[in-house]
């Protein structure tokens, strides 16, 4: 055993199917995907609607008054909001008709996507009944069982489908209301309810809801990103298809030969799916023999010419199939092409053997009587017109056009591109010097390429209006200029191809510049504003952040520091703070947007995605709340890999709150009652204590979601709850705090106790004391609150051994640029002071801090060691921490069990996997909290475990959910990148070191003696 060294932590920065009504059959599933591709959220967004995922409770809908204006005259955003409200109202009606799980009438919540193994022979139906419980209705059990069959690829006959022991199965999710979750990934959620309702949530303003009543399915679809998807329609299988437009119902009758069955699922000979574009809708009709589209039922929007009434009825056309995905109406003069979700309409005319198709968007296509293409004429986004000619016509549809003519805006004459023997398309233009120049058309991408071989300049004119110029002078840096509708991006590269500078000049004359170090990292940035104000930033390697100054046009100077995508500015004279959202990292179209920042709550605020809403986001990425125009707050938490960890809802007017989490747990506050549930132990219902009610009444603006979550965390234990709120009530009497600071401290304390995983070290090197902060918030929340309140109010704190430590309250609470809220700043500053006592520690604006010894000598804070963390925990809590050494996953599991399965601190390298995707040679010594371990394969040798880890970097670095947990072998491997390897802090004698031998913990006496000598040396040095 190697002797225990004296190592500091925190000496550097931490790294940072579309579906139908629910009753259709499987054979169309592939077709659904091709017709209606689902868009999944790829990045964080603020949810302004109320959505349900696989584990949600009752959802309340927003109420909007419809505007009596034809859809064609409405802006796409208005139409989206209106349709979204209508869909959520339908969802609310569905949920109102279903009694919630908590009254015992519906099954308990089950986590979606978890893999299980069958323990004994059973049928799928019996398994579903056992999982959902005796209180579940037959229809709920049947729906759940059929989905299990679908997941396993079995015939949908759950009562006959047998499962053998050891069979791996993936269970669908189960909502509180009895809905079945068919998908829950990357922000996409699809839930089916027993009444025939299907709800698809694709993002805050993207979704669809289908509700079937009496065989008629009403579908409402909203999409702010693709306005063409906004629609409402009615589908009926059987005797008729009903189509609703402008408030009137139109009936199109279809033949029907009665229901049939595939794998026990009924279907009809005709099935209608809806495609909509530009107000035009098409029912894609399939026949029962081959599952291929037979014809389209087209509903054309009414004409809006001046002489026509705006509410004229649409025109319905029944269009038989003419060719592959091409249809023509009975007149033969109007046709349609179905391309995925796109529906293209054209008018047909014929001159001899030539048929001309003129499309709505202006495209023109000519074909011969056999359908072979003669020519194509079309326009791209940049406004260029192209005409392709196929000669001879027999080449149409099989090869390439023989020539392409291009008309560019502003050109006096078109450019003719002829196909060469090698298949390229070359044309000629007159250059600036009067000479003829050869240019090339890359037909697949519609790029026009001009090469000046003499000056080594290549210009590429793209179909979206972009112009890219490549300068490749052998005697200078290579330069690439990209001109878009948003501005011009210029990139300089050295002779080895590495980027040295990027500059973007926006159309509104902002100039953004990044300078790169030869190592491949950005070392400096600057922003020049149109009024002459400028910001200069450089990378501070010690802080791991960009810092600098902003020089205003009026001469005012502000300190500038870049945190994530927010530029925090501090007035050099008044120390007032403001923030600017700065999205340089997310796109090559940088923008600056002023936002408000509250350094005491750790949140920033800006306008929401929907009009009239406000979006509030945590400084450390992950948590976003949206205040709707109805006064309701809706929240989301995005974790690692943008996984949606939590959704919540809070109505301050009615004092109701709801939180649902990805692990199947949730909590609801309503009418003074707390209902809580999780995937393993069922439901629980308790009343708020009088002290909780009194606290709510005294703090009317307090977030009731936090009250509900704390009540659940403390298991409704009245003594623990009342003890906590007794401490929190003392905040209102705390000295050294303003009224606003008291409110912020109360809020941040509640947030820490409700969400220990979100306790953040911000942009500091305080991981060392933040793990202690989390430990207190988890294990002794009342003591945690009392420690902070006493320190800020009295300026003193008495440690376990009776030592009195003094603080400067003004420094404890002083705002800094780290993104930490007021509770974290106070605790982390006081904790370092206690750990380093009698030396003095002072926080600084950048969050690094300085240490001053008794002789008055000062230096920058360089972290605390394992032994100082151990001493700190003892000084604040009287709990001792032993050290355990592990060398394998099995040993880590043994240590965790011996620690009572309580959270324990482990030492890792934050710059190595799994904490960082790209290993680094830099020192990333870091401490995190292991909150759980779960064996996922006991038969493997050695057994495989998941390990649940809470980090201090914010929700996006949290790995304490089953869906985000680490593979334990990865964690153990990471622990051995640290040079001593395998260090874990557990409850026990603080002078002892343990190892695992023969499956039990045994003291390593030599290591314990070395540890005791080190502790003595540290005491003498102090």
Explain how this protein is built.
By secondary structure, this protein is α+β, with helices and mostly antiparallel strands. It has a 38-stranded antiparallel beta sheet, with helices on one face. It has an 8-stranded mixed beta sheet with strand order 65-64-63-62-66-61-67-68, sandwiched between helices. It starts with 7 loop residues before the first strand and ends with a helix.
Task: Give a short summary of the structure.
This protein is of the alpha+beta class and 1022 residues long.
List descriptors:
about 1000 residues, disordered N terminus, 16 helices, alpha+beta, about 20% helix
Q: What composes the largest sheet? A: 38 strands, antiparallel
Number of beta-strand segments: 68
Low-confidence runs: 1-74, 99-113, 237-273, 304-312
The structural class is: alpha+beta
Oligomer: single chain
Overall pLDDT confidence: 78
Q: What would you report as the Rg, rounded to the nearest angstrom? A: 33 Å
How many angstroms separate the termini?
27 Å
Instruction: List the total number of helices.
Output: 16
Gross geometry: globular
Describe the SSE topology.
Blueprint: E1 8-9, H1 29-35, H2 76-96, E2 115-117, E3 122-123, H3 124-132, H4 138-152, E4 162-163, E5 168-170, E6 173-174, E7 180-185, E8 188-192, E9 198-203, E10 206-213, E11 216-223, E12 231-236, E13 240-245, E14 248-253, E15 260-262, E16 265-267, E17 271-277, E18 280-286, E19 293-300, E20 315-323, E21 326-328, E22 334-339, E23 342-351, E24 354-359, E25 364-367, E26 373-379, E27 385-389, E28 403-407, E29 415-419, E30 425-430, E31 436-442, E32 447-452, E33 457-461, E34 467-471, E35 478-484, E36 487-493, E37 499-506, E38 511-516, E39 522-528, E40 534-540, E41 545-551, E42 557-563, E43 566-571, E44 577-582, E45 592-598, E46 603-607, E47 614-618, E48 623-627, E49 633-638, E50 644-651, E51 656-661, E52 666-670, E53 673-678, E54 682-687, H5 690-698, H6 704-713, H7 718-729, H8 739-754, H9 767-779, H10 781-794, E55 796-798, E56 804-806, H11 809-813, H12 822-836, E57 840-842, E58 850-852, E59 858-860, E60 864-865, H13 866-877, E61 881-885, H14 889-898, E62 904-909, E63 925-937, E64 944-950, E65 966-967, H15 968-975, ...
Parallel strand pairs: 61-67
Antiparallel strand pairs: 1-60, 2-5, 3-4, 6-7, 7-8, 8-9, 9-10, 10-11, 11-12, 13-14, 15-16, 17-18, 18-19, 19-20, 20-21, 21-22, 22-23, 23-24, 24-25, 25-26, 26-27, 27-28, 28-29, 29-30, 30-31, 31-32, 32-33, 33-34, 34-35, 35-36, 36-37, 37-38, 38-39, 39-40, 40-41, 41-42, 42-43, 43-44, 44-45, 45-46, ...
